[in-house]
Structure formats: structure tokens, C-alpha cells
Amino acid sequence: MSSKCKYYKRILDSMLEGVIMVDKHAKIVFMNRAACRILHMPVKDYAGYDVVSTVKNTRLHVVVKTGISELDRIQDAGKTRIVTSRIPLKDENGNVVGAVAVFRDITEVEHMAEEVTDLKNVRFMLETIIQSTDDAISVADENGKVKMVNKAYTKLTGFSSDEVLGKTADVDIAEGESVHMKVAKYKKPIFGHRIKVGPLKKEVIIDATPLVIDGKFSGSVAVIHDVSKIISLSKELEEANRTIRQLKARYTFDDIIGVSRTMQVAILQAKKVAKTRATVLLRGESGTGKELFAHAIHNASNRANHPFVSVNCAALPEGILESELFGYEEGAFTGAKKGGKRGLLEEANGGTLFLDEIGKMEVKVQSRFLRFLQEMEVTRLGSTKSKQLDVRIIAATNLDLEEMIKDGKFIPDLYYRLNVVPIVITPLRERMEDLEPLVKHIIRKLNQEYGRAVKEISNEVLEILKSLPWYGNVRELENFIARAMINMEMDEKIIKIIHLPAFEVPRKRSTSIHVPSGMTLKMALNNFEKQLIQTTLKSYGGNRTKTAEALGISLRTLFYKLNQYKIK
Q: What is the maximal distance between C-alpha atoms in the chain?
């Protein structure tokens, strides 16, 4: 075997993609290490094996027979799911002399092969394989001069092969150090090398492996990944995740805490309607638990094993909300994704779509959504074809929809379509009998999150909590308890007055605690502490033991404070 052939073999075994090459009789000529790894096959020489009986679900024999390429096909290969391209290999007369498959595992993290195997084939076949990969590849000799680049490299860097071949490997670098030069210096593989390349300064990550032929260092091969595209997609995904969520419903009715009559009525209504496909309208102030009810209704329905899709109507502008709900075809508007996109209604087919803050939906989108509810058919933007869907709708709002109808901000017919089964979740301040069980539930939950072992809350703190209006409802209560637990020492088990956020306490005792203006911070803190001790002492009829316990300090410390502030 020639040195050049070995050179190409080393390159192919350094690729992340699997490569299988067959001759015109569909017999395997070569299979690289990545192919064996991806297909979970032992690493050995498969030359001469029949590809149909060796590789599960292969179609290389079909490509050999038809001479027609099959590009970017998704295929199940035993335990692995791959995307593959199959390309016929032809001689100078156009006769099919074999075929090659280039594929990658789309279920696992890419990694470079560390060892190489022998390859028996001709030069033009090897070049075809290298050019067919989507990853940019560059090859340098032992002196760090570029010997080969593929089409993907040209597309990524903006440099043609004529501009880089024969030149030192730093010719394409805008910022950073040449990975080929580093490999030539240290004779070791380098992974995750980050630089910027080309006139546009594209950010890339490079994995490079030394080429060793017959025990001699002969150069290096580098696989280049476009990081700027990954970063851009990650930012878009992060933004989308803040507004649109497709998830499995996490909560059940066991997670809804409420012993009050109004909550029991709401829970009973929700359990009854969960067994039907009726549309539900959840009404209540922010923080009352409307989304919790939506999750529970879905999980108690016969749709529990199907999608639960949630979207906040207030978080998306009109145009984006419409395209996200209904989907769009390619070219439907400027910036439309190539190939189009399924809408959230299609994503929720067979399951539940939860529309939070439905009152913030623009009238134009309301009108189109009303048509969907009437026909249960969706038409993507830019399309004339409609699709029948089976979607259960749960909507939620904290707004007065009836008043919005009078103001022309909400379509009456949509209101009647949504208001099939209205469930009202009353604010926490109107069901204070739920406060204590809620506090206990929140403490158990936060113990798990914070790694604490808090057991209970003192009666004095509970009385303070009952006196607060809780305009933020259960969400505000949970935040309040969380701040109190953060103020506790790790070995403390009971939440006491001393642990409460300081600015919250005056809401209970504002008539008796006053901080005069013009004080320094230290003076104000001392004044506050003095008044808190006086107020607490008075509430316990002068009992110092109970006062010290309520304040979470020792009796000795209390006596010290009494003497310090001259409190009788």
C-alpha cells in the first residue's frame, strides 16, 4: 500500500463520521473505526463481507444498483439513530464501480477516533468521501503547511483551496494560534482549540490529530466546527424557552394545597372536567396557582401521556404569537425558517394547549384562534391547506374579560367558547385557613431545594403571616418563607420572628415601631431593635422567657439588651 493511500486512510479514521465503502458487488471494501463505534460493531477488518448481511438496514446495495444518491436520510441502525448520505462511485466512463455511505450518530456527543486502521482503496474514492462530509477538514504536513481542504472548509472560512494550499496553516486565522503548528510542535492531539478564521472572523472549535505513518509523524488533520452558528442558535433557544415551553405536565391534584371551601370547590370542579375534553377557563389573581391547576387537569385526563404545551400570550408580540400558534410555511414572511415550522397547536395535537394570560392576546390573533376553536382545523401562515386537530384548550387570565368585551378588547364569541367551564381560584387573603397547610407544604419543598431540615413555624410568625394581605398570593408566600429560611442557621429547626425579612415585620407592628429621620444606619438599627424588643415584651405581658423565645435569642442576651437600651 502506498504512503499516500495510508495518508488518506489516516484522515478517514480521524473523522467523526462513519464511513462504509462497497464495491460494485455490494461487498465491503472499507469500514472506518467511527462506523464500527456508531453501529456498535467490533472493530475489525470487514473487507469482503456482504454489506446487506453485515450492516442493519443498509441501502448501499440499492445505490450500487440504481446509481442514484440518497442524501441526508434518517435511519435506525440497531441501538443507534443516524443521519446518512449514500453516494455512488463511478469511473471515468460513468459506470458505477461501488458506493460509499457517510453517516453520523445523532444521539451521542461527537468525539475523535484515537486510533486508525488500514484502508484499501484508490485515491479518487478517498477524496470523494472527504469532500462529502459536512464538517470542515484541513490537512497539513509535518511542517505545518496546508496539503488539503474540503468544500465545507471553503464555505466556513471563505478561503478557496488555491488560497491556502502550500501555505503555512495560519493563513486562514484572524485571531488565535494555528492548531496544525501546535500539533507539529508537540506531536499530540489537541481538542477544543478555539480561534477565529476568515475575513468575517468566524469563531470555530478545532479538534486536531497527528498523522503517523509507519511510525513517523507526517502531519495533522483538523476538523473544524462553526461555533458562531451554535452560539446564535443557543441564544435563540434560550430566548424561546423564556416564553414558550413544551413540557410534560409536572403537577397533579396532590400538589394543590387547600382546605378552604372555595379551594375544595375549585378542585372538585377541576377533577370533574378533567375527565372530559371540555375547554376550561381558569380565573384568579397572579400567583394563585392557575398553572398548577392546568397541569393537574391534564394529568388527570385521558391525554396525560400526550403533549402538554404551555405558552404565555403576554410574553410574545402579535406577529410572533400568531406564527408560533399556527405555524408557517417556508417563505410565509421575512425571516421564516427554511422548510417552515409546525405551530404549537400542531405540537399539542392529541394533548393539551395551556394559554396563560389569554386576556393579553391581540384581537387579530383572537379572531383566528376563534376560528380554530369553531372548526378544530389549523392552517399555517402562507398555506391554503388545513389540518384537523384534536387539542384540549385550557386558558387562564387574571383580567376582567367581561370589562374587556365592553371596551372592544376581547371578542365576545371567543369568551363564550373559552368560558365553557370557568374555575375561579380565590386569592390567598380570602382563604386564610389555607395558609398554615400551605406554609407546611412550602417548608417541605424548600427543605429539599435548600438541603435544610426545618420542621415548623412558630405561632408568633404564623400570626404575623395571617395579618398580611398577600397581594402576590401563594407565590409571594413562598418567596417570604424562602427568605426566612435563608436567614436561619443550618441547625435551626423552627422559623421565628428573628428570621423574618426585617422590612416585612413593620407591616404587623407599624403603629408601634417608628424610625425617626436623620439617623445613621447604626442608630436606626439600634432604634429598630429597641422598639422590636419593647413591642414583643409588651405582647407577652412582660414575660421575658417567652419574649426571648419569640425573638430567637437566649434569655441572657435579652437581659443584656434590656440593660443596654434601658428597657424596664
A: 111
